[in-house]
Amino acid sequence: MPEKPTVILRDCPTYDTDAITSIVGDALDSLDLKPHGNTLVKPNCVAAGDKFPHAYTRPEFLEGVLSAVNARAVPNTSVRLGERCGITVPTRYAYREAGYYPMLERVGVEPVHFDEVGQVEIHLSHETRLRDSIYVPEPVASADFFVNCPKFKAHPWTTVTFSMKNYIGIQDDRHRLIDHDHKLNEKVADLQYVLQPQFIAIDAITAGEGRMLTPVPFDLGLVIMGNNQVAFDAVCCHIIGVDPLSVDHIRLAYENGFGPVDLDAIAIEGDVTLQQAKEKATGFRVGLIRVEEYFEGTNISAHAGPPPEGEPDDYCWGGCPGAMEEAIEIMRLFDTETDEKMPQTHIVFGAYDGEIDAGPDDKVVFIGDCTSFSGDIAGTSVDIGSVYVDRSNKDPLDAKDVDIFAKIASVEREWFRTRGDAVVEVRGCPVSVAEQILLLVKLGHLNNPYFDRSQALGFTNCYLSARTQKLLRRLRGTPYNSSQGAPRGAAAVTS
To answer: What gap in Å lies between CA 212 and CA 42, rounded to an integer?
Structure first.
């Protein structure tokens, strides 16, 4: 890590690929960076396409980055682009919807789908770790030169998602949901020990405020680049008026020695000053809206108690409540009558000890393993106990790969079993965005996004292609999980 990390702010009002190529090339030259060996570029492609136009790193932006990287790579460098998208969608489909494939063909870069490759165990030994090992895709573990290309967005669980939070996409579904609860910020901090990027370039031309899957577009007109992601995220926080130490994963990485947050310890360069960037970002809204407040004025009444291991006023920012907020926003995209169709429903999270003012015809849904309640609901005594299992008893090797069609079948079976019940329990830790989408579909008789006619054919083709690749890997005898002590490109900080 350089003594004084550098963050470069450049003006870029439109997605002009030639301009982005020049901007990124200038930054690579200024930082004296030459991509080499196994060079891996990671975008944020959590969701993409017409329904999610501002959720992902745009292909024009990536084309500029990849062109600049290719032009400066030393001989025999292999450049690949890799990601694992979200909401149980095949990464192939997210790439397709994002327009990545034709762009990658133009620049001669190979796509990698992290949900289709082998996973490597990375051992952790730092004192504050959540667990002793985590799994990441083999291309991540073997990267010699790592380029992080996130999207500049707010986040309903972690306040912001800049460079460090983009690491959630370096795990496949079965592993990314482990610790994706009230310890989400600690999980993001642990992932920093896998590897650190040599270069960061964030798509801040059209930023996303409020949410991360369905953000509101915010014209920021910036390309921000750097060589240390704690310093980088700290500067991005200052641009939108957020104290970087108030964002737990940034604070934890800072405390673990991954980089500075003090502006005096960071070299800020470029053709835009920090003050000018702040002026551009005036009015930018971050996330962190409690679920009770979020659903005010709708047919859904939300109630949230504390998660396990927390103080009485704690809230599970990284788990089920935030997933429900994202789920309802997605449903509003695919069914414009979502709010009108939803019946009077009460949704409960965590150890809730308040009142639930439900009518005799209202549905009451308890979501999450840690949810508990004892009291009266519509004249009936109800006792819901927590089934939460402490994380120390959860082995990543036991994590199951449940694809979206299996989840659809599971939700259908459970809903049929409980169709006449006024009180329903939906268990999981966390209950994913995908599962909560399917829950809302059943509650409100809403249009199922996964069966949307405009994308059903493409989705199914990508799903079958992904399943075929996984089958071929097994037939070749390539293990899904393997182990290694420390990956190439690992963090410069010793644990």
So the answer is: 17
